[in-house]
Amino acid sequence: MSKNILIFLGPQGSGKSTQAKIISKLKKYTHIVESDLLHNFVTQNNKESKQVQKIIKKGEMVPFEISCDVLFKKINSLKSKKIIVDGFPRTINQAHVIDYFLYKKKHNLLGIVYIDLNKKECIKRLLLRKREDDTLKIINKRLKIYFKETSVVLDYYKQKDKLIKINGNQTIEKVTNEILNKIKKIV
């Protein structure tokens, strides 16, 4: 059964998950959050999950074999034909693997919605949400890794004419409207 996949990317603090949630409700898509899948994986309390927990606490990227595995199992388990994937792929290796997975399963990659926001604004927003793992040191580390790794992914999908760049430095409503306008031809 072929599925339509729309991917949402953006640095931490860009509002990517907020927008993915809004669009999934408006367009009746199933919303999969990669970080939620990994946090659920960590609760399995085995050797591998404990290693992943340490990696996440340090603000580092989870090995792509694990992040791919949990995501693909979730996509395969869904009956829904319309899915928003939130926060994946983050590296070029992940992009190649998800493209191959979608091709093999005959799923359609509709596009990559990228919520663009500069590092300074991301840091400001992340510090305001006051989460335990949002220390300035860890935020800076995560964002440095994110921008370095993901810029290659964005270029890759731009070349495939799949990238939909959105200005994340505006109100939630304006970001939502910009997304809706730019995806209306593909969803």
Q: What would your notes on this structure say?
A:
The protein has a single domain, classed as Rossmann fold (3-Layer(aba) Sandwich). Helix 2 packs across helix 3 (47-57) and helix 2 crosses helix 4 (64-77). The model has no long low-confidence stretch (mean pLDDT 93). The chain is an alpha/beta fold. The protein is globular, with a radius of gyration of 16 Å. It has helices at 16-27, 34-42, 47-57, 64-77, 92-105, 119-128, 136-159, 172-183; strands at 4-9, 30-33, 82-86, 108-116, 163-167. The chain has 8 helices and 5 strands; from the N terminus they run E-H-E-H-H-H-E-H-E-H-H-E-H. Helix content is 57%, strand content 16%. It has a 5-stranded parallel sheet with strand order 2-3-1-4-5, with helices on both faces. The longest helix has 24 residues, at 136-159.
Structural class: alpha/beta
Helix/strand order: EHEHHHEHEHHEH
Q: How many individual domains?
A: 1
CATH-defined architecture: 3-Layer(aba) Sandwich
Under CATH, the topology can be stated as Rossmann fold
CATH superfamily: P-loop containing nucleotide triphosphate hydrolases
Oligomer state of the chains in this structure = single chain
Mean pLDDT: 93
Instruction: Strand order, main sheet: write it out.
Output: 2-3-1-4-5
Unreliable stretches (pLDDT < 50, length at least 5) are: none
Termini gap: 18 Å
Helix tally equals 8
Residues in helix, %: 55-70%
Shape: globular
The tally of strands reads: 5
CATH class (first level) name:
Alpha Beta
Main sheet, how many strands, which sense, barrel? 5 strands, parallel
Radius of gyration: 16 Å
